[in-house]
Design a protein that fits this description.
Elements lengths: L12 H14 L2 E2 L12 E4 L2 E10 L2 E10 L8 H10 L16 E6 L4 E10 L2
Parallel strand pairs: 1-3
Antiparallel strand pairs: 2-3, 3-4, 4-6, 5-6
Amino acid sequence: MVVAELFTLDEGAKARADKVLTYAYNNPYKDGDPNPSNNPNFIAEFGSYRAIFTLTKNDGMLYKHLCVSVKNSDMLPPPPVVFIIADLFGFTGFDDKVFDPPRDWVVRPNFEAQCVVVAQKYGSVQ
């Protein structure tokens, strides 16, 4: 039997996300850069969940890119947790009464990395 823990954001959650956001916006990720999962500046932890956030340059566009995993587990995080964490990192359009991702979010499980990936177009590279 699997029992999901109750997910709540503590008082420091927004500050941890904001610290990563500030770093990510000042240091956009692009192909060829070192893996962001090896850079603690791109990582925030929320209880038993780990989030890696980058602002990623690809094909002349910028994307918000988030990977959410369960620490010390081979399980994927539940969708509502992923959506709440994405909202915390500034992904737009989320409605917590619906718990479905907005149409402009790309949400995919990555079984190899044991995470759920979320991406949303942010703008064009200047």
